[in-house]
Design a protein that fits this description.
alpha/beta; 5 strands; 34% helix
Amino acid sequence: MTNKIAREQDSEPPGGRPKAVGFVRGDLSGLDAPRHADAVARHARALGYDYLYTVRPPQDTTDPVGYSLGIASGLDVETIVVYDLAHVDNQPARVCEDFDLETVCPAETWVRAVQPARVESGVA
């Protein structure tokens, strides 16, 4: 194994790269929704995430942020990527209760309030 491959493997968390989903609200992005979705996916991949999916809540959802948080929780992701803070109702703290938050515009990272506990497996 080359040193480069060994370094890359050492830098990845157990199970591979951290997972992320994007969140694009049609009610906010309007006709720019496809462009915003593309920007969100590119941003996540550029940061090294395993980008799984772009969540687009239905127009009639009363709580689009909660809808997206539920999907992200079910997919066991570490990070949610949005175009801007308006997509999370300018409340990054709501997302950061359980996930890290990345914004494309401006490019910022919002770190979750409490890091998840690491579960060690094996016999002591």
